[in-house]
Amino acid sequence: MADVYDVVVIGGGPAGYVAAIRAAQLGLKTACVEKWINKQDKPALGGTCLNVGCIPSKALLESTELYETARHNFFDLGINVGEVSLDVPKMISRKDQIVKDLTGGVAMLFKHNGIDWLQGEGQLLADKQVQVTDQKGKKTTVQAGNVILATGSVPIELSATPLDGDIVVDSAGALDWEDVPSSVCVIGAGVIGLELGSVWRRMGSEVVLLEAQDTFLPMVDGAVAKEAKRAFEKQGLEILLSTRVMGSEVKKGKVVVSYQDSEGDHEKTFDKLIVAVGRRAYTDNVCASEADVQLDERGLIHVNEYCETNVPGVYAIGDVVRGPMLAHKGSEEGVMVAERIAGEHASVNYDVMPNVIYTHPEVAWVGKTEEQIKSEGIDYQVGSFPFAASGRAKAKGDTTGLVKIIRDKSNDRVLGAHLIGPSASELLGQSVLAMEFDATVEDIAHTIHAHPTLSEAMHEAALSADGRAIHIGNRKRK
Q1: DSSP readout, 25-77?
Q2: What is the pLDDT of residue 476?
Q3: For labelling, which of 192, 233, 282, 448 has a CA lying 20 to 30 Å from the CA of 53?
């Protein structure tokens, strides 16, 4: 007889493992199916995010940012350290250790919460049965009262630029080079492309980003995107928009990239090529045909606002459903679904989903852009404050960027907040909290912020929306 669980989660990434932990906390007998095999050829939890995504990329971004700061900014701060050298293998080893610690931590949390980790590939069958195929091909079946599909996403591959060893790689492959290439081409100037491009540019590579769209970071507020492009190009990233990649060919250990732009056809040779054109939902063989789970035209699992599929008792969360492919979005959906299975009334507020690009300067935003607000015909006001006028930013020697807050003139509610600058990812939380609690811009303006802090920039931006910022000149309001 098959084992019976209240909840079986297929997928052990940030959506799946969080759903499993919350379900177990609520007293539900829970299992999680995960097939990931890590660099050490061992099973691991954490999915893409912990193993080859969010966490390892941030480890390398942190190391390389400190390296660049030591090389270029220490002298201005009155610190003389002599020649700074780079130990890439040690950097990669540190990254791998962080991954090992965190993925091992998830395994310990499973043990602490009494969750069964079913190692292998999961497939939903009819009647909420889940078939698990282990690494040796052995199949077992478990019965679930509820199933949560959380199989995540995989990098989109381009037929014109097939992956080739460690020369033409996807985002995961770009995290493991132990020698600094002299030149790197990145296809895609989105979040992943910019972060990976920044890592290798800081280490000394010449980096060119080829972007098919004619607008840089179209999902970002226009003023912030403009500031970001200027900052990244000043650092040495070459960003080519309206550029279509036609193909690549590996020759003598290098890669020749062919592309088109408004001036015609081009070819350029690089040491490495990173394909970072986005990700697609991983729904391959996740649901057997007899499971009758409905997918949309993009291959995403169709769900309602509570992540319920068309099959009662079957849910889907994270990258396999509509919405941005963000780890925290998937985690919150996992909590919501677990709580709803347990009979609680939970929901996710998708209107206040934070977004971050972990470059330097960081780019972070929540809510609507000024362009979106304008197109909707909403009467609004903008308040902004540059980090160049922040005492703490000056003390840090890091003054690039600004805070921009947009309010609805009819009720003073925060419609959006857009930041570029030091610690933007951390400062964003204040705006997310304000929007979650329906706070007004006046509420932020009346909140006392410690001095000197970077968060004062948010305070001043809120004051600026009403023409009363203290540390910059205010525009006259009509």
Answers
A1: HTT--EEEEE--B-TTSSB-SSHHHHHHSHHHHHHHHHHHHHHHHHHHTTGGG
A2: 74
A3: 233
User: Which one-letter amino acid corresponds to residue 218?
Assistant: P
- Who contacts 227 (Cβ-Cβ below 8 Å, separation ≥6)? 400, 401, 402, 420
Q: Which residues contact 418 (CB under 8 A, 6 or more apart)?
A: 220, 221, 223, 224, 364, 365, 369, 370, 403, 404, 405, 406
State the catalytic residues: 451
Q: Which pLDDT does position 119 carry in this prediction?
A: 98
Q: Would you state the structure tokens that stand for residue 87, as one six-digit string?
A: 């130990």
Contact 92, 52 (CB under 8 A): no
Answer yes or no: are the C-beta atoms of 303 and 321 closer than 8 Å.
Answer: yes
Interacting residues of 451 by C-beta distance below 8 A, sequence separation 6+: 391
pLDDT digits (tens, 9 = 90+) for 418-440: 999 999 999 999 999 999 999 99
3-state helix, strand, coil in the chain (%, to 5): 35, 25, 40
Read off the pLDDT band of 477 (50, 70, 90). Answer: low
**Residue bearing tokens 């190009």:** 233
Residue 430, CB-side half-sphere exposure with 13 Å CA sphere: 26
Cβ proximity of 275 and 161 under 8 Å: yes
Tokens of 111: 């043990």
At 127, phi and psi to the nearest 5?
60, 35
pTM of the model: 0.96
Task: Provide the residue count of the chain.
Answer: 478
Look-up of token digits 């296809």:
187
Token code pair at residue 262: 């408004």
Q: Which one-letter amino acid corresponds to residue 433?
A: L
